[in-house]
Amino acid sequence: MKFSTARRPLSVALASLLAAGALAFGTAGARADVLGSMEVTPATGTDTSGITLTTAGPCPAEATNLIVSVAGSGFPAEGQNVVSNSPIETYGSTGNGGIVVPLTQTMRDYASTAGFTTLQGRYDFTLTCRAAFGSTTYGDFTAPVWFTSNTAYQSAAPAAATTTTLAAAPAGPVVVGTAVKLTATLAPAEAAGSVRFLDGAAELGAPVPVSAGTATLTSSGLAVGTHSLKAEFTPSDPAAYGTSVSAALSYTVKIKPPAVTTPAKVTGTAKVGSTVTCTVAFGGATSVRYVWLRDTAVISGATARTRPLVAADYPHKTSCRAIATNSTGSTTATSPAVTVGLGPALRNVTRPSITGTAKVGYRQTAKPGTWTPAATTYSYVWKRDGRAISGATRVTYYPTRADRGHLITVTITAKRPGYAWGYATSAQRRIG
After folding, report:
1. Is 54 left (phi over 0), alpha (psi -120 to 50) or beta?
2. 405-427: pLDDT as tens digits
3. Residue 257 confidence class, pLDDT cut points 50, 70, 90
C-alpha cells in the first residue's frame, strides 16, 4: 500500500499529538467564548511584512498556553495554525495585560504552506487561550485583516463598494435646446453623498445631494454633437462607502436636417460635348454629394457637381440629385430633367485629299483629313465637275472615259455618335 505524506510545521504536529494525548486523559471540553479583539501591527502592510498581534487584555487565569490560527480564502475551513501550542509567559505583555505575539512568518509564507498563491479578501486571526495539555480552552481573541490586492493588506475594514448608473430622458438623439433630465442611481441606496454630472471633463451644474439612492439634474445647454456623460458619486463618509463612477453614456444632440434654399437645377448647354452643372443650395448642410441620372436611372460614377455630356446621353433626358447631410440626417433635392441635344457638327481641321495617278483606270483613294472631335466613321461621295457620280460612294474610285478631261473631287461626311455630321470636300484634280 502506498502512503502519502504532507510536511507540517513541527509545532503543529506536536500540538496535535498533545491534544490527542489530552483526550486520552479525559480532560474537560473546550469553551469558545470571545474574550476580545486584537490589534494588528503594522495596521497596513504587504504579504511579506512581519505581523504582530496584541490582545486587548489577558487570557483568563486558568489559561497557561495559547495557539494562533488564521482562516480565510485559500486556508482550510477550520483555519491553519500559525503559532503552535506555546506558553503565554514566553510572550511580552502590555500595561493592561494584553499579550504581544510576533508571528514568525509572513502571510506569504502561510499561503505557501497552505498551497495557494492569491491572497484576497478578509482573513481572521484567532488567538485561543488554553491549557498546556488536553483540549480545554478558555476563550478567543480575534483580529481581521483585509487583502485589497494579492500583496497589500489593511487592518481596517475597506469601505463598502458602491455602484452608480446613469440614465437620460428623453433618450437621445434630441435636437439642440431640449431639456434633458439626467438621473444617477446609487447602490446601496443608503449611501450618503453627492453626485457630479459630467460632460466629458466638464461639470454640468453643481454637485447634487443623493436622496433615497438617486440624484437628478436637468440641463438644456447640451451643445450640438455627441456627448460622453457620466455621474460620479462622492461619499459623505469615505471610510464607510467608496466612490464610484457610472459607465459613460453616449448622448447625441442634433441640429435640424439640411433645408433646401435654392431648388436643384441643371445649368449649362444641354448638348453632347458640353458640361452641365447641378446648381442647388442648402442651409445647415455640412456636406453635399451628387448623383446624375439618365432617364431616371442613376449613372454609375457620375458623382461630381459638374458632368460632361457624352454621346450616350443623346437624345435622353438628364437630371441631377443633390444629397445634403449634417449630424441629424440627409435632405435630397432633385432637379427637373432636361433633354440632351446633339453636339456641334464635327469640324474639319485638315482638308480631305485624293491620292493616286490622275488618269482613266487608275485608282483614286480618298484621304478624310482630320476632324475635331475625332470622327469614328466616314462616308464618301465622288463628284465630277461638282456633281455626284452615281454609285461612287467608296473610299476608292476608278475614273472612266467619261471623266477624261474633267475635274473630280471627293466630299467626306465625318460622323461621331451624339454629334452633328461634318462635311468637307477635297481639292479638284483633272483626269487625263
Report:
1. beta
2. 999 999 999 999 999 999 999 99
3. confident
pLDDT band at 32 (very low <50, low <70, confident <90, very high): low
CATH code for the structural domain at 347-430 = 2.60.40.2700
Q: Which fold has domain 163-254?
A: Immunoglobulin-like (2.60.40)
pLDDT at position 75: 98
Residues 175, 198: Cα–Cα separation, whole Å: 20
Please state the three-class secondary structure of 95-122 as a single string: CCCCEEEECCCCHHHHHHHHCCCCCCEE
Strands 330-334 and 317-325: antiparallel
Query: Does the structural domain 259-339 have CATH classification 3.40.47.10?
Result: no
Specify the domain boundaries for CATH 2.60.40.2700 within the chain.
259-339, 347-430
CATH fold of the domain at 10-154: Immunoglobulin-like (2.60.40)
3-state SS class at 22: helix
Residue range 150-181, pLDDT digits in tens: 999 999 999 999 999 999 999 989 988 899 99
Q: How far is it, in rounded angstroms, from Cα 130 to Cα 251? A: 66
CA angle 151, 127, 148 (to 5 degrees): 20
Looking at every residue in the chain, the average pLDDT score rounds to 92
User: CATH 2.60.40.10: which residues of the chain?
Assistant: 163-254
Res 12 pLDDT > 60:
no
